[in-house]
Amino acid sequence: MQKFTRFTASISTETRGDGWVLIRHEQSFAMYQGNLLHDPDMARYLGDAEYQLTLGLVDDKPCQLVRVKEQIDLPGLSWHGLRGLLGHVDDSTFRLLGVAQQLDIWHDTHRFCGRCGQPTQVRLDERAMECSACGNRQYPKLSPCIIVLVTRGDEVLLARSANFRSGFFSTLAGFIEPGESAEEALRREVMEEVGVEVDQLEYLGSQNWPFPNSLMLGFHARYAGGEIVPQPGEIEEAHWWHVDQLPSIPPHGTISRWLIDCYLARLAGQPEPPVPA
Questions:
Q1: Which residue, among 93, 77, 84, 64, has the nearest Cα to 32 in the 3D structure?
Q2: What pLDDT sits at residue 3?
Q3: What is the largest CA-CA distance in the chain?
Q4: Which residues on neighbouring strands pair with residue 30, listed in sequence order?
Q5: What pLDDT was estimated at residue 14?
Q6: Residue 122 placed within a domain
Q7: DSSP 136
Q8: For residue 212, cis peptide bond before it (omega within 30 degrees of 0)
Q9: Separation CA 23–CA 194 (nearest Å)
Q10: Which pLDDT score, from 0 to 100, does residue 6 have?
Q11: Using CA atoms, how far apart are residues 227 and 110, in angstroms rounded to an integer?
Q12: Secondary structure (DSSP) of 219-269
């Protein structure tokens, strides 16, 4: 497993020969001969660069994201979306890919100033896009969300949206609105999505979630009353599930699965697993 260390400021706009390169086009990463990390010499054969961003350090070597202009077709080369890689790469690699995806989306959507409309440039001394005309700086944005496992003794409330695969259920989640605390957002989202009231809110931990730029704040909450009424257009199904008869649930490495595993560990009198990176 390779060690990934993030840092907040770009150190270079050029790919260094002693580092690593991730190749990305639109929503996909390039995998060559089973590897997502490429040495700079090999990376030059995987596409023409549109732009480059510094991500951090991998095994103490700088790692660059290179956005290429097109997906080329070579023997041994394949292209993969980040969701499809979840559960198929180690946690450190998934974190690295998540940072790459978030920064790529940020760069792609902030090429022009939101104040005056002129082109922006990546600053070299900090992670920011700066307007070449008015000097306005734009930094990567995170969207805070709550994610909660609602519990009722030996049962947990899990729901599915229409875009989930058949039989797949997960915890409830939603974005925090302006002016809300995390606790207020939790109560509102649970009421809106499934129509029940909760109490005894307990914060457990957080996870950065790159779909597209969420910071997930994980909670347990106890059921306090009401009947399940799925929100039309948002929740397709929602049910109470006994902990011994759970449906298909999110994979390990996700905060939703971690919230479930923590509750199962508590019921069994076992140590809780560590929060996923």
A1: 77
A2: 61
A3: 61
A4: 79
A5: 42
A6: no
A7: -
A8: yes
A9: 41
A10: 57
A11: 44
A12: EEEEEEE----PPTTT-SEEEEEETTS--B-PPTTSHHHHHHHHHHHHHHT
Per-residue pLDDT of the chain (277 residues; tens, 9 = 90+): 456 565 444 333 344 457 999 999 999 999 999 999 999 988 888 989 999 998 988 888 899 999 999 999 999 999 999 988 987 888 889 999 999 999 999 999 999 999 999 999 999 888 999 999 999 999 999 999 999 999 999 999 999 998 888 899 999 999 999 999 999 999 999 999 999 999 999 999 999 999 889 999 999 999 999 999 999 999 999 999 999 999 999 999 899 999 999 999 999 999 999 998 7
- The helix (H) or strand (E) run that includes residue 42 is helix 40-43
Phi, psi (rounded to 5 degrees) for 53: -135, 140
**In the prediction, which pLDDT does 56 show?**
87
With a CB cutoff of 8 Å and minimum separation 6, the contacts of 114 are: 136, 138
Tokens 């009198």 identify what position?
Answer: 269
Domain count, the chain: 2
Task: Give the domain extent around 99.
Answer: 4-109
Together in a domain, 69 and 182 = no
Strands 49-58 and 4-6 come out as antiparallel
Concatenating the DSSP letter of every residue in 60-125 gives TEEEEEEEESS----TTEEEEEHHHHTTTS-HHHHHHHHHHHHHHHHHHH-SB-TTT--BEEE-SS
Last residue of a domain, one of 58, 93, 109: 109
Tokens at residue 249, please? 């649930």
Specify if 209 maps to a domain. Answer: yes
Q: How many residues does the chain have?
A: 277
d(CA 221, CA 152): 9
